[in-house]
Design a protein that fits this description.
The complex is a heterodimer of chains A (154) and B (724). By secondary structure, chain A is an alpha+beta fold. Chain A is built from six helices and five strands. In chain A, helix 3 packs across helix 6. Chain B folds into three domains: 172 residues, Aldehyde oxidase/xanthine dehydrogenase, molybdopterin binding domain (Aldehyde Oxidoreductase, domain 4); 147 residues, Aldehyde oxidase/xanthine dehydrogenase, molybdopterin binding domain (Aldehyde Oxidoreductase, domain 4), CATH 3.30.365; 323 residues, Aldehyde Oxidoreductase, domain 4 (2-Layer Sandwich). Classes of the chains: A alpha+beta (154), B alpha+beta (724).
Chain lengths: 154, 724
């Protein structure tokens, strides 16, 4: 039995600690917002934040992240009010939507680190795959979110 | 008007709360799907509002909420918004009151096609559904007007509908739609009239997608997100070589692994069923299976490529012939010939294939993202033996389709497994299974030979293509020995040349081919439009000038070329080190012209900086999603052009995941500018696919300008490029 803190809630889990976090979220906790796309650290559809950093949850054994602060798309905000979510709606980013949880978690982590990222910062940080090709709007969405952050700060 | 609105959620049939195996909740309970966000499994099968509906497409509640049934799949292209817009416009609805839900394939079966064709392919969702959706909306509007007239005891001619209300013209009194809906549902109307385009109030306005809110907070339910009480998970192992069958399998080797419940042996695959997908996947990878594989094991893509190109020397089956091509070639001053080659491609949708099935005594419920709910119903009925009227397809959001989810192989397989297990099962293909047991975009070799006379005019044109036929794989009838999908873009090539002969040869391998975004256009436009640049060079013309000259008889294409020339600043030199390449192609009722601007670094690094697109699709329902579809086609096409290749060794598909089947990333994304031509006819062209075919040739043509090297096979990553 071990305990994970996910979206500010403690969960006691009686499962194999080698289970990747992705499948703990999806199969054991029914938090299906975090997606399976490749399972090998390539696509980023499973991106969550651990202690504020973007992490590919398919690569993290659940038993190795005890006492860490895990945030999934379900916990980014309770009402879709996070600046990235608001910017995503405003910039009309999603198409099929399957990769967007991971994109949003990666973008939110980028903005935590660099509140006003340059295009080069975005290029470096955002290497999640989107098959619908929403990349141009993801870039626009991140700049929009940065503007919203600046507005809030002033 | 364009406010994003919540989608009605009815998740009563899904498992509620957090009750999964092995998880014990402590502290306070945070619901997985917060009540403050719209939940979005939306499907009519679980509802049953049919009694009070205005017609099969439209239900209006007493509070005025308008639920519109969408009979097509939402795979990112925006039909969940665009199709309700068509109905809402005719209905004179207040758009903020409109909700969307997936129409029931069961009802479509039981009520003999009340939702017409639910197949979502060939960029048809709007161009084919348009007339009957307009009629449905107009009929509902007329019923509401008639209901108001009856209540007031006045003539219907004295009443009109506007923005969710019916007004009495002489005195301005009104009823809202909600208060009229019950009565309207009982009425019938004749002489239903639809609007002309100048009367549209909603169509043509950029409108926020209804599904966006659910796609930014994780609440949108894709097939893989379905959770049912007592549900088990299955991982599937297919024969590594297509056509192989299971010879022997040792379940005892994994029987005691964690979570493993049972194994289901099928003819050419084995499913491992466990309490979680992770456990099923881990066990399936340890399962000892041997396969009976025939001559397919001797198949290699390099050898197949050689065979395809060698077959170009044969005459092929004549598709069309005009003039005296042989004589014209013989008398030409110069003859140029080029061979093009395109590999198999996988669809690689972001969401790997999956399907969830629950079978009870006489009823089957199936949850999946499918491009054809009618076909899923038929496949499930056949695989289960349950009568089709007792089969319910709950269509979910598709994590990408691109044609792959129109094939029901994964549906039939999941039904067979669930039937054997006797409990609800969610069957998931791993990414590797999805890619290696794919249904591939055909491989093709394409030859052109043209004769040019002393005046630099192209006087003779021959074309022979050799390609894997989708229709032959399907066992569908061919047309005079030709699969029309294999020659689209070649058989109807638009350039005016007096003598021409077009031939084709079908050559299939042990792989199974399938429809891939833009189908035959995806390979043929590459070869055609690259060769057009070769013809331009042979006739000493600029690529734009050549196209204008040889398309002088096609005002529809000329119009697009003229705008493209202007918007791309074709005549202006690009920044130092960059070059522009172009292509034009018409398919699915839409013409697209594109210019790519590229550069190549000294170490061979190719960068595509910009794509300018000019699109003539006629009328547009939602300009916002229309633009998104062109951008999507560019990225999907550019990914294939730069990296896409499925290789075969020992009969097995080599590429299995995104480490070997590379994807374009954000940092490689060009700036995309898209311009839509104003509609000048009643045409509603497709948009899901036409953005793709010009991408590869536009890039290849630009590369030639920088390197003087013709790109005649894809992917471009196979070339080492050097600027000259």
């Amino acid at each position: 039995m071990f305990r994970l803190n996910i979206n500010a809630v403690d969960y006691d889990l009686d499962i194999d600690p080698d289970t990747p976090l992705l499948w703990v979220l999806r199969d054991h906790l029914d938090m299906t917002g975090t997606k399976y796309g490749c399972g090998i650290n390539q696509c980023g559809a499973c991106t969550v934040q651990i202690n504020g950093k973007p992490v590919r949850s398919c690569q993290v054994a659940a038993g190795k992240i005890l006492k860490q602060r895990i945030v999934t798309i379900e916990g980014l905000s309770v009402d879709s009010s996070h600046v990235v979510q608001a910017a995503w709606v405003e910039a009309d980013v999603p198409q099929c939507g399957y990769c967007q949880s991971g994109q949003i978690m990666a973008a939110a982590a980028l903005l935590d680190r660099i509140p006003d990222p340059s295009d080069e910062d975005i290029d470096r940080a955002m290497n999640n795959i989107c098959r619908c090709g929403t990349y141009q709007r993801i870039r626009k969405g991140i700049h929009l979110a940065a503007a919203k952050l600046a507005e809030k700060a002033s | 008007m364009s406010k994003g609105v919540a989608i009605v959620g009815r998740r009563g049939f899904l498992k509620s709360g957090v009750t999964a195996a092995g998880a014990l909740l402590v502290a306070f309970h945070l619901p997985v799907k917060s009540a403050s966000v719209p939940a979005v499994v939306i499907d009519e099968s679980a509802v049953g509002d049919q009694a009070d509906e205005i017609n099969a497409w439209i239900f209006i509640s007493a509070t005025g909420v308008i639920t519109v049934r969408v009979a097509k799949a939402e795979m990112g292209q925006g039909v969940l918004t665009a199709l309700p817009m068509i109905i809402a416009d005719e209905l004179e609805a207040d758009w903020s009151m409109v909700r969307a839900e997936f129409a029931s394939a069961n009802r479509n079966y039981v009520q003999s096609g009340v939702y017409r064709d639910m197949a979502t392919n060939s960029s048809t969702a709007i161009r084919v559904s348009m007339p009957y959706l307009q009629l449905a909306g107009a009929e509902a509007r007329q019923k509401l007007i008639k209901a108001a007239a009856e209540k007031w005891q006045v003539s219907v001619d004295a009443c009109y509908a506007e923005y969710g209300k019916v007004y009495h013209r002489p005195d301005g009194r009104w009823f809202s739609y909600g208060t009229l809906a019950c009565l309207a549902a009982e009425l019938s109307v004749a002489n239903v009239r639809i609007k002309t385009p100048d009367q549209f109030s909603l169509m043509g306005l950029p409108t926020k997608r209804l599904d966006t809110p659910a796609k930014v907070n994780g609440s949108a339910v894709f097939g893989m997100d379905v959770r049912l009480d007592g549900m088990l998970y299955a991982a599937i192992i297919h024969s590594p070589v297509e056509g192989g069958v299971v010879r022997n399998v040792l379940f005892n080797a994994i029987r005691n692994m964690p979570g493993v419940v049972q194994m289901v042996r099928l003819e050419s695959s084995v499913a491992v069923v466990a309490k979680t997908f992770w456990e099923a996947k881990v066990a399936s990878e340890k399962l000892p299976v041997t396969w009976r594989i025939g001559d397919q094991a001797n198949s290699y893509s390099d050898a197949l490529r050689d065979q395809y190109i060698a077959t170009l020397d044969s005459p092929g089956v004549i598709v069309s012939e005009q003039g005296e091509t042989t004589a014209a070639l013989d008398s030409a001053e110069t003859v140029i010939q080029s061979d093009y080659f395109l590999p198999y491609l996988a669809h690689a949708a972001m969401e790997p294939l999956n399907c969830t099935v629950r079978i009870t005594a006489a009823r089957l419920d199936l949850w999946a993202g499918v491009q054809n709910a009618d076909a899923a119903l038929a496949a499930a009925a056949q695989a289960s033996g349950i009568r089709p009227e007792n089969v319910y397809i709950h269509n979910c959001f598709l994590g990408g389709g691109f044609g792959r989810r129109a094939n029901m192989d994964f549906v039939s397989e999941a039904v067979t497994v669930a039937k054997a297990v006797g409990k609800p099962v969610q069957l998931i293909w791993t990414r590797e299974q999805d890619m290696r047991s794919g249904r591939y975009r055909p491989m093709a070799a394409i030859r052109f030979q043209v004769g040019v006379d002393l005046k630099n005019t192209v006087v003779a044109y021959t074309n022979h293509s050799v390609s894997h036929s989708i229709l032959k794989d399907l066992g569908a009838p061919l047309r005079n020995g030709i699969d029309p999908t294999s020659v689209e873009g070649l058989a109807n090539m638009p350039y005016l040349i007096s003598h021409k002969k077009i031939a084709h040869t079908i050559k299939n391998t042990h792989l199974t081919s399938w429809f891939w975004r833009s189908v035959g256009n995806s390979q043929n436009a590459f070869a055609m439009e690259c060769f057009v640049d070769e013809m331009a060079e042979a006739t000493k013309l600029d690529p734009m000038a050549f196209r204008k000259l040889y398309l002088a008889h096609r005002p529809d294409l000329l119009k697009v070329l003229n705008v493209l020339e202007q918007k791309s600043q074709w005549r202006h030199n690009p920044a130092a080190g960059r070059a522009k390449g172009m292509a034009i192609h018409a398919c699915f009722g839409t013409i697209v012209g594109q210019v790519a601007e590229v550069s190549i670094s000294s170490d061979g690094g190719l960068m595509v900086h910009k794509f300018t697109s000019v699109v003539d699709c006629g009328h547009v329902v939602n300009p916002l999603s229309a633009e998104m579809q062109i951008e999507s086609g560019i990225i999907y096409g550019l990914t294939a052009a730069l990296f896409g290749k499925i290789s075969i060794e020992n009969g097995e598909v080599v590429e299995g995941n995104f480490d070997t089947y590379s994807m374009l990333k954000l940092r490689e994304t060009p700036l995309m500018e898209t311009f839509f031509m104003p509609a000048d006819s009643d045409r509603w062209g497709g948009l899901g696919e036409p953005g793709l075919p010009c991408v590869a040739p536009a890039v290849a043509n630009a590369i030639y300008k920088l390197t003087k090297r013709r790109i005649r096979s894809l992917p471009i990553a196979d070339y080492f490029l050097q600027p000259v």
